[in-house]
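REVIEWER CHECKLIST
Item 1: Sequence provided? yes
Item 2: Single chain? yes
Item 3: Sequence as submitted:
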Amino acid sequence: RKVFSFLELPYETQVLDYWRHSRNFIGAHHSNLIFQPVSKASVAKWKQNLSQSDLEIFELLAGGMLREYRYDMHGDGAKSAVVAWRSAFQLLTGLPKRGWQVVATRVILGLAAAMGWRTEAAGAGGASSGDKLR
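Item 4: Structure as written out by the authors:
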């Protein structure tokens, strides 16, 4: 209700029922959370799921915004040289790897579209032949 009020929109109760119909509009390749009701279970989940190293890098990159919006921070938010170098290294090694993943996915989806095959990445749509690429 607060979000709707902030946006100066009338509140509609159906907005919380999105998960009942999301499979009609969103492919199965998305997180399963989008097919479930809103829950408080994910609040602050990042605190338990991020490694110490990833948490330090995240706070280095997002620290200003975290402080501005009064989020709890794990560390003191200091920009240590070690964390900065580690994050730069991960970025330099991770971007090319991710780039190749994106290219490979694009090629597979292009091939699947040309052949009329369904893919998990394309959701439930596609040809009825039952062929499936992963």
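Item 5: Key structural point noted by reviewer: Strands lie at 118-119, 132-133.
Item 6: Recommendation: ____
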